[in-house]
Amino acid sequence: MNAPWKPAGAAQREPFAAYVCDDTTAELLRPIAAELGWSVDKVHKGGLRNAVQSLSVSASPQILLVDLAESGDPLNDINSLAEVCEPGTVVIAAGQVNDVRLYRDLIASGIQDYLLKPLHPDAMREAFGHAQAMLNAPKLAEANVDRPHCAIAVIGTRGGVGASTVATSTAWLLAEREKRTVALLDLDVHFGTGALTLDLEPGRGLTDAIENPSRIDGLFIERAMVKATEKLAVLSAEAPINAPLVTDGAAFYQLQEEMRAAFEATVVDLPRAMLVQHPHLISDIQAAVIVTDLTLAAARDTIRVLSWLKTNAPQTHLTVVASRVHPAAQLEISRKDFESSIERKIDFLIPFDQKLAAQAAKLGKPIAEAGKNTKTVAPLIELTRHVLNVGEELVATGSEGKATAKRKSLIGGFSALLSKRAKK
């Protein structure tokens, strides 16, 4: 629901509507609506259930207030509301349940705010002010439309080499330094750290996508993405470890498709096991960053991953990054011997900085943000600029068309699952 990426037609819709459960709330809202130049007739009785019924047959407003006081399952009911709301609707919920977990779940589902009843006029005015500011924020999908989309995958050769650190910092640098609208897709469904690194609640968007891939469309992306900064949004998960991942990969592919339409760059934190199980995920990736450390086991697995990518994704530009690199005397394998083993140069080397890593974790920030202007972050900045240039060059030379042809041959069996839902 609320998000800074909104359709151009949002301004033509009604500016406001409210669906409340009691006369007291309605009487409080009407004079505030009048102050803001909104029609008092748009304050309706009936709560969330009436909102779902009404909006299923009419356009949703720019700002929508729904009363959850009569809802037995607020989170599920909000998800039902999302089914009938158009992209760009900023939703404010009100309710009687004072529970921080419910508040977090509702915010993660995409609403702008959750207010506790009985409502206070000043709190209501403040919430509407924030909603109007959200509507007036720059639209991600419309910004810099002439720029080609850049898709980057970050793949660790082994666990613990720092691939997620590189992915999160690259996404942050693309958003903050390169001024691109960026989606970070963390495909480690059970143990992903994309949201954790940015001090965010992961929400249920990724697990919902896996369970219902045919529901994924622009509205789903708008509702499921968790906003980290004005230009960076994250889709991550912390699925229960007793719930195995059962998917044919259709959801992940469709997520990439929708992110391509809504953002200027996508960074996919792609676990190596997912790469092997779902090879179509790499088919539309322009640049793959292979993250390793300088150990014997990592050398073996870097050789294997590079070989797999050269065979299965010849259209993808490969960049090798050595991360968490200790001083030479502490290395298991020297850089020279490592490069000799993998039969290619290491493109970027990121030194190990325990102090900076600890500081970033405490602050809930990516290393690139916590360590601005440090020697540790300098190669991350160079890496980000490099992969962005690679992605733009590949699009400019037409290589993306070859990737698309290969993609179609790989995922022909998914066509039925990937059809977009039409709004009722």
From TrEMBL:
The keyword Nucleotide-binding applies. SUPFAM superfamilies: CheY-like, P-loop containing nucleoside triphosphate hydrolases. InterPro entries: CheY-like_superfamily, P-loop_NTPase, ParA/MinD_ATPase, YlxH/NBP35. Keywords: ATP-binding, Nucleotide-binding. Coiled coil: none annotated. It holds the Pfam family ParA. PANTHER family: SEPTUM SITE-DETERMINING PROTEIN MIND HOMOLOG, CHLOROPLASTIC, SEPTUM SITE-DETERMINING PROTEIN MIND HOMOLOG, CHLOROPLASTIC-RELATED. This is P-loop NTPase. It comes from Sphingomonas kyungheensis. The lineage of its organism: Bacteria, Pseudomonadati, Pseudomonadota, Alphaproteobacteria, Sphingomonadales.
